[in-house]
Amino acid sequence: MSMREIKxxxxxxxxxxxxxxxxxxxxxxxxxxxxxxxxxxxxSKTLVVDDQSYKFxxxxxxxxxxxxxxxxxxxxxxxxxxxxxxxxRESSFSAVxxxxxxxxxxxxxxxxxxxxxxxxxxVDQREVTYDEAHKYADQINATFVExxxxxxxxVTQLFTAITRKLPAxx
Length: 170
Ligand code: GDP
Prior knowledge:
This protein is an alpha/beta fold. The protein contains five helices and six strands; from the N terminus they run E-H-E-E-H-E-H-E-H-E-H. A six-stranded mixed β-sheet has the order 2-3-1-4-5-6, with helices on both faces. It starts with a strand and ends in a 5-residue tail after the last helix. The mean pLDDT is 91. Bound molecules: guanosine-5'-diphosphate. The site of guanosine-5'-diphosphate (GDP) has 21 residues, from helix 1.
C-alpha cells in the first residue's frame, strides 16, 4: 500500500483543546490537566482510509505573539489545516475568522480546511450553536464537525473527512 504524507497545521485560540485533539488522535488518551504547548509541537500518526495510507505530520502551535515570525515556516507545505474553537466559548468561535485570515495570508492557497467545534461533551455550557458554525464552515468551503477530545467523539472522523477532501495525487 502506498503512503501519502500530509502536513497538517492546527490553529485556534489557546485552551480550545488543540493539543488534546492531537493526543486523542495519536495515542487515544486524554489529560484533564494538559500542559500548555510552548512554541510548537510535532506529532505523527498513520491512518488508513479507503485502502490508502496517510501519514499525518501534525504541527500544533501555541500561537503566542512572540512566535508570529515563525508563521510562514509553520504553514509551508501544509496540505491541510484544522481550525479549532470551543463550543462553550463564543470568543473562540469569533476568533475562527481571524485564524482563517491568518491561513489565507501565510498558508498555501490550496490547503484543505476543517473547522472543529471541540468540547462537544459540555453541551450544557454551549455558547455556539451547531447551525451557526456549520453555516459559516459551508460559506468558506470547510469541513465541519463537533468533536470531543475527552470522549473521543468525531476525532477520527475529523481526520478521515480531511483525507477525503485532499486532491488526487498527481
Ligand atoms: P490548547 O491550548 O488548544 O492546546 O488546549 P488543550 O489541549 O491544552 O486543552 C485545554 C483544556 O481543555 C485542558 O484542561 C483540557 O483537558 C481541556 N479539554 C480539551 N479538550 C476537551 C474536550 O473535548 N472536553 C472537555 N471537557 N475538556 C477538554
